């Protein structure tokens, strides 16, 4: 074989940055994105609409969808820099910020991104366990009646969720997660459709008409004006959380093959993903509110707005559990990679970091085990599981996560990177418009964070650790 032909073969194996050729398409990227986006946030949307009412609830839902779409498109144009098609790749969100905005902004981004990725994985642990607990309660209510005392504990289910994550966390990297993301995306469609179907059935059945309103919960109707304000702030955070996926969109784009250009494929992915997600969010949020009115539970599949058919509620919660098992990995992989890359740079010759052992697993195949990866990933899952056990506050945690992640990761960094990459002139119409959007979203995030923190403080006053509910 001649040297030129050998070089040609090597070129066919690797992309322009020396990484083994990426093979992802807009379809696989959409699966990753939908798996990441349609998560635990969808379960609290009907509650959020109930706090805000038809007008504000619908408006804020659509507004955040448009903002997420706009800023995600800005991010996709920054994957290659300085030219969006022929520039150097930015394989991760952090690297993108570092290359475009510089070192200080990079440190701020790393802090914001990893804080929120950790928070999301904790939230997924909590929500996944609540779904399995709901199955246990559902069967109890079906057997003993809707007024039966069906108290139970979700802590053992958090441990089960953690065991699944310890096993799945040994998947080497993002590029080998496609099958898991496809399964997770199918599950997310499944439980969303079940929730929508049950809501429609409840509305069509008639009977007691749910009380709804243009402004949501009415002050004086079991709620004070102060509680109404805090709940509204928290609801805004919940809706924001539902659209927070920017922290993984760059990593998803980095799975795409080079032809067609990544920016074209990712833009297509973004349009489809946000459109599909928003449709399901609107159906879950609005139909859920129409079905339950101002008494909508915080989690519309596990809060027992629905009791029957119990088997369908059970299937919906099984879907939620399976989906969150996969979504956890989509958000955890960037954390795993960051620590492992740091370790490799600090100790490039270390056998602990480099050496792999082939472990044969019956019916599965050979697992390439690295001791450092195994210890680190297992430890991470154990820690996030323990935190979820200590702080099991679903709606307030969801609202706070949304508030913390929405502004910096979904708005600030994408807009600043776009302004820099596109060299938008200061004080031009585009520059002023983008800056105004950024300020508006900052105010929204502050309001939502305040509401969620107040809710967590209220929960802590009555919280009894490890007590069944």
From TrEMBL:
Keyword Transport: yes
GO CC aspect terms: endomembrane system; plasma membrane
InterPro entries: AA_transpt_TM (IPR013057)
GO biological process annotation, one example: auxin-activated signaling pathway
Transmembrane regions listed in the UniProt entry: 26-48, 54-75, 177-201, 271-290, 310-331, 374-394, 400-419, 431-457
Cellular compartment(s): Cell membrane; Endomembrane system
UniProtKB keywords: Amino-acid transport, Auxin signaling pathway, Cell membrane, Membrane, Symport, Transmembrane, Transmembrane helix, Transport
Topological type in the membrane: Multi-pass membrane protein
Pfam family, one: Aa_trans
Keyword Nucleotidyltransferase: no
Main location: membrane
Residue ranges occupied by any Amino acid transporter transmembrane domain in the UniProt entry: 22-457
One MF term in the entry's GO annotations: symporter activity
Family classification: Belongs to the amino acid/polyamine transporter 2 family. Amino acid/auxin permease (AAAP) (TC 2.A.18.1) subfamily.
Purpose: Carrier protein involved in proton-driven auxin influx. Mediates the formation of auxin gradient from developing leaves (site of auxin biosynthesis) to tips by contributing to the loading of auxin in vascular tissues and facilitating acropetal (base to tip) auxin transport within inner tissues of the root apex, and basipetal (tip to base) auxin transport within outer tissues of the root apex. May be involved in lateral roots and nodules formation.
Name of the protein in its database record: Amino acid transporter transmembrane domain-containing protein
């Amino acid at each position: 074989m001649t040297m030129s032909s050998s070089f040609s073969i090597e070129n066919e194996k690797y992309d322009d940055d020396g990484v083994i050729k990426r093979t992802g398409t807009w379809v696989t990227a959409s699966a990753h994105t939908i798996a990441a986006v349609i998560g635990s946030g969808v379960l609290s949307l009907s509650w959020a609409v109930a706090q805000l009412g038809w007008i504000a609830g619908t408006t804020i839902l659509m507004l955040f969808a448009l903002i997420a779409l706009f800023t995600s498109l800005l991010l996709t144009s920054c994957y290659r820099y300085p030219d969006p098609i022929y520039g150097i790749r930015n394989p991760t969100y952090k690297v993108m910020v570092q290359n475009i905005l510089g070192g200080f902004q990079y440190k701020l981004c790393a802090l914001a991104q990893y804080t929120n990725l950790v928070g999301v994985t904790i939230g997924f642990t909590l929500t996944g366990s609540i779904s399995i607990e709901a199955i246990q309660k559902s069967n109890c209510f079906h057997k003993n009646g809707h007024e039966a005392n069906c108290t139970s504990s979700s802590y053992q289910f958090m441990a089960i969720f953690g065991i699944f994550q310890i096993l799945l966390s040994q998947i080497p990297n993002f590029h080998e997660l496609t099958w898991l993301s496809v399964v997770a995306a199918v599950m997310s469609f499944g439980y969303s459709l079940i929730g929508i179907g049950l809501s429609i059935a409840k509305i069509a059945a008639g009977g007691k008409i749910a009380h709804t309103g243009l402004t949501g919960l009415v002050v004086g109707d079991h709620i004070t004006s102060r509680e109404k304000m805090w709940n509204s702030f928290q609801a805004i955070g919940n809706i924001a959380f539902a659209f927070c996926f920017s922290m993984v969109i760059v990593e998803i784009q980095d799975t795409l093959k080079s032809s067609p250009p990544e920016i074209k494929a990712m833009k297509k992915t973004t349009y489809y993903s946000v459109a599909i997600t928003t449709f399901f969010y609107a159906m879950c949020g609005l139909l859920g509110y129409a079905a339950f009115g101002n008494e909508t539970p915080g989690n519309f599949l596990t809060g027992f707005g629905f009791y029957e058919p119990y088997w369908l509620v059970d299937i919906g919660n099984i879907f939620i559990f399976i989906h969150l098992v996969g979504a956890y990995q989509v958000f955890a992989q960037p954390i795993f990679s960051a620590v492992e890359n740091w370790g490799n740079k600090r100790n490039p010759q270390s056998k602990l970091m480099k050496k792999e052992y082939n472990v044969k697993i019956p019916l599965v195949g050979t697992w390439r085990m690295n001791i450092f990866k195994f210890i680190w990933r297992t430890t991470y899952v154990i820690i996030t599981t323990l935190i979820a056990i200590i702080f099991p506050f679903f709606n307030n945690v969801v609202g706070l996560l949304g508030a913390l992640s929405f502004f910096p990761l979904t708005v600030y960094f994408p807009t600043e990177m776009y302004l820099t990459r596109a060299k938008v002139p200061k004080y031009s119409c585009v520059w002023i418009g983008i800056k105004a959007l950024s300020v508006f979203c900052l105010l929204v995030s502050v309001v939502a964070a305040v509401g969620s923190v107040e809710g967590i403080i209220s929960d802590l006053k009555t919280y009894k650790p490890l007590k069944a509910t």
